[in-house]
Design a protein that fits this description.
about 400 residues, alpha+beta, six-stranded mixed β-sheet, five-stranded mixed β-sheet, 4 helices, about 20% helix, about 40% strand, elongated
């Protein structure tokens, strides 16, 4: 009787088990993680094996290889190495359905097994940004959504504006029950500002299946806004007879139309000296009549804006006089000094006259023996009680 190949394999395995019966042998395996579409290598090793058969089975308990014999008709499964100490196989073009627990069996008595879990990573699809309509008016609310599907586990989405990460975003994930993959979306919500014009907004998808190379979708923002106007003067101290150039810088999107120059709310009064060339106003041979408020106005389809510049023409002669010594200040100081000196002389004269009279009076009262004028005065003050008796009359 001739045995079929499968029965022959089982017969050999059974014989090996009965003959060997080794108790110190045990198969060793490792879990494997592979990206969908990649190749998974499953290895089973036995450090001490006395010619006992090894077998790999899939999660459905179907035998893939028995020693070096292929048991399942699947062109994706190939033998890498078969020996008494190792049985290695490979599964190419791995799909999500291949994920599960694989078993390596060592046919001792009893049979010893080791499990290896095959994890298949679902690669996220390239993200797409939706919700942007060009152009956007300044002040309008923008909602940009980034979406990617097919990731397993769920992918991570991050937003950047000009390479600076934006944290305040909404995140949502949904699982596909059939394929066990995830669809992930994130929404960036903000008010459009003129500073965002030309900014690059990017949505970055990070996932372990991408080997540290994220998938990125980008969107360049276009924001329309009213003009921003500024006047720049060529002369910070304009004088009579000189010239001045006023430049009106206007920024806006769309680009503002040619600017309008006015003076004190009306047209420029002297077109011969006040020449407008695009955004530039040139005034030659300045004089005092040019003093006033000059306005520059710019507009585009979004709106209009203006700014003003106050022109003051200075007298060069008055300026030169101010640079010399201040004669009025010097004259005031001299007058104060003279006044203080005169007051001092007057006070000193009154003081001397008062003391001289007192001295003479005491001499008339018989104070000839006083050694000096001060003593005479003191003696005179002590004798005032008899003043009525010693009155003297001068004729």
């Amino acid at each position: 009787m001739r045995l079929k190949p499968g029965a022959l394999l089982r017969f050999y395995s059974l014989c090996g088990i009965l003959v060997q019966g080794s108790q110190g042998q045990f198969p060793l395996t490792q879990n494997v993680t592979v990206v969908e579409g990649g190749t998974a290598n499953l290895t089973c090793r036995v450090d001490q094996n006395d010619n006992t058969s090894l077998q790999w089975s899939n999660p459905a308990q179907q035998t893939l290889y028995f020693d070096d014999k292929k048991a399942l008709r699947d062109n994706r499964i190939e033998l890498v190495r078969a020996s008494w100490h190792e049985l290695s196989i490979s599964v190419s073009d791995v799909s999500l359905s291949d994920e599960g627990q694989y078993t390596c069996s060592l046919f001792t008595m009893p049979v010893k097994t080791s499990k290896a879990f095959l994890t298949v990573l679902g690669v996220p699809e390239k993200p797409q940004i939706t919700g942007f309509t060009s152009p956007v008016m300044e002040g309008e609310r923008m909602q940009l959504t980034c979406k990617t599907s097919g990731s397993k586990p769920a992918a991570d989405i991050r937003w950047f504006k000009n390479d600076k990460e934006v944290k305040d975003v909404k995140y949502l994930k949904e699982e596909d029950a059939v394929r066990k993959t995830f669809t992930v979306s994130s929404t960036l919500d903000f008010l459009a500002d003129r500073s965002d014009d030309g900014a690059v907004v990017s949505c970055r998808v990070d996932h372990e299946s991408l080997n540290s190379t994220p998938q990125i979708a980008m969107q360049v923002l276009e924001i329309h806004y009213t003009p921003l106007v500024k006047i720049i003067s060529s002369n910070s101290w304009p004088e009579e007879g000189q010239s001045i150039i006023l430049t009106c810088e206007s920024k806006g999107k769309p680009l503002p139309e040619p600017v309008l120059w006015t003076k004190d709310g009306g047209e420029l009064p002297d077109p011969e000296r006040m020449v407008v060339n695009g955004r530039v106003l040139s005034i030659s041979f300045l004089n005092k009549t040019d003093n006033g408020t000059y306005r520059c106005e710019a507009k585009n389809p979004i709106g209009r804006n203006s700014t003003e510049y106050v022109l003051i023409v200075h007298d060069p002669n008055a300026l030169a006089g101010q640079t010399g010594p201040d004669h009025a200040l010097i004259g005031g100081i001299v007058a104060v000094v003279v006044f203080v000196t005169l007051c001092s002389i007057i006070l000193l004269g009154r003081y001397l006259a008062r003391h001289k009279g007192t001295y003479l009076t005491n001499e008339a009262k018989g104070a000839e023996d006083a050694p000096d004028a001060d003593t005479a005065i003191i003696n005179a003050e002590g004798s005032q009680v008899n003043a009525e008796e010693k009155k003297e009359y001068f004729i």
